Amino acid sequence: MTDAAAGNFLGTEYDAFLFAAIGEDGNGMVLSVVSALVRLDLDPWQEAADLARLPFDSAVKRLAGRITALPDQDQAHRDSPTIAARVIALLPRGRNSTPKLLGSVTGSRSRPNVIWFGLVVVLGIVVFGQLFLASRPSGVDGSGHAVLRERGSAHSGYPQ
Predict the structure, then answer these.
(1) 54 and 8 in one domain?
(2) Domain presence at residue 102
(3) What's the predicted TM-score (pTM) here?
């Protein structure tokens, strides 16, 4: 599987297609389009986008071939053209048939905003820390030597 599918979540325009059931695997578990494509070592979202760009009949033939190529075929896989036609009909058609990374269009500004906010917070902490340290007595006498003060001593400034 490619990094696009593994590391970045894609839009929801293909969900109806990808999560549609196409039969059962050899263990009796429901097999979805997404799990079938992963078993064939294909990127499900890229395959969905490719199928959406094809004419309907070509997309049905391509997906039917993929279903037939699945290991652990059961009887449902024997009717792969019918299954493929049913799920291909769930694909979006037209101008929205290109996969988009979430954040590539709508969320692209949210990540930089979070980074800027974090930088402002860190800068604020540093500035207030410097102000806090600057407001404390330095503990250095006129000759530049550090002066150790004990609580309650005459030099501490506390009443005795």
Answers:
(1) yes
(2) no
(3) 0.54
Letter string b/e over residues 11-38, b meaning 16 or more CB atoms within 10 A of that residue's CB:
bebbeebbebebbebeeeeebbbbbbbe
Residue 145, pLDDT above cutoff 70: no
pLDDT band at 100 (very low <50, low <70, confident <90, very high): very low
Domain assignment present for 77: yes
119 and 75 inside one domain: no
pLDDT tens by residue, 19-62: 999 988 778 888 899 999 999 999 999 999 999 999 999 999 99
DSSP 8-class letter at 17? H
Q: Which domain holds residue 48?
A: 3-88
Residue 146, number of CB atoms within 10 A of its CB: 9
Do the Cβ atoms of 88 and 60 come closer than 8 Å? Answer: yes
Backbone angles phi, psi at 95, to 5 degrees: -70, -20
Between CA 88 and CA 59 the distance in angstroms is 7
Question: For residues 120 and 114, is the Cβ–Cβ distance under 8 A?
Answer: no
| 122-140 confidence digits (pLDDT tens) | 888 888 888 877 777 666 5
As a whole number of angstroms, the distance between CA 34 and CA 48 comes to 9
H/E stretch holding 125 reads helix 110-135
